Amino acid sequence: MKNSRSFKTNVVTIHSSTETIWDLLFNRFGEIHLYNPNIEGSHELNNKQGEVGCERECSLDKKTFIRERIVNADMYKSVTIDVIGGNMPMVHEMRLKFLISPIGVGKTRVQLEVEYTTKPSFMAVLVKGMFRKMLFKVLVGLKYHLETGRAVSKSTYKPVSKQFSKLHPEQAFQGI
Predict the structure, then answer these.
(1) Going along 21-167, which residue ranges are E strands?
(2) Euclidean distance between CA atoms 108 and 116, whole angstroms
(3) Does 176 reside within a domain?
(4) In this predicted structure, what is the pLDDT of residue 10?
(5) Model confidence over 66-113: pLDDT tens digits?
(6) Against a cut of 0.85, is the pTM above it?
(7) Residue 69 belongs to what domain range?
(8) DSSP 26
(9) If phi over 0 gives left and psi between -120 and 50 gives alpha, with beta otherwise, what is residue 88?
(10) Are 23 and 75 in contact (CB under 8 A)?
(11) Using CA atoms, how far apart are residues 38 and 58, in angstroms rounded to an integer?
(12) Residue 161's domain is classified under what CATH number?
């Protein structure tokens, strides 16, 4: 991406195996609505679930949506996703890379590496904080969903976030 900005989110420790995390991020790509509190819904678009080239559409609200495609995958290590369409304001191009690192039996660190451009380009500096906050919510939601088996949404995220803020970095969620 020409003239792009980039950042990494904070690392989140998830009490789940790399295989389980991989399964949700890659094989069940269309099911992001289970752990992303920024969206109202999602669905797979092209019947390529569990393959590079798989696409999904995510509804942020009744009018705003994005389309994403898996463009690269390194089994149990990373999944790279490009935003390939939609009408999210200011997003021109965006690439998200989930970095997955095992740290013990049933314990994995996950981080997002993000590269993006905006339209107009001067907005890139202004939206970086908003993007960082939104994408960290995805990691907290992923942790919550995998550790409790419960979905997280816009309406249920606040108590999840509150409990997460009280956890030590290596602690798991207890049911809320």
Answers:
(1) 41-44, 55-59, 65-74, 78-86, 91-104, 107-118
(2) 26
(3) no
(4) 95
(5) 999 999 999 999 999 999 999 998 889 999 999 999 999 999 999 999
(6) yes
(7) 5-165
(8) I
(9) beta
(10) no
(11) 10
(12) 3.30.530.20
* Within-domain flag for 66: yes
The CA distance from 26 to 24, in Å, is 6
Examine residue 72 and state whether it is found in any structural domain, yes or no: yes
Q: Kindly report, residue by residue over 41-75, the tens digit of the pLDDT.
A: 999 999 888 999 999 999 999 999 999 999 999 99
Residue 147 in any domain: the answer is yes
The token duo for 16 is 């789940």
Residue 45's contacts (CB-CB under 8 Å, 6 or more residues apart) are 30, 55, 56, 57, 67
Number of domains in the chain: 1
d(CA 37, CA 161): 10
Tokens of 158: 């606040």
Which pair of tokens denotes residue 167? 């956890």
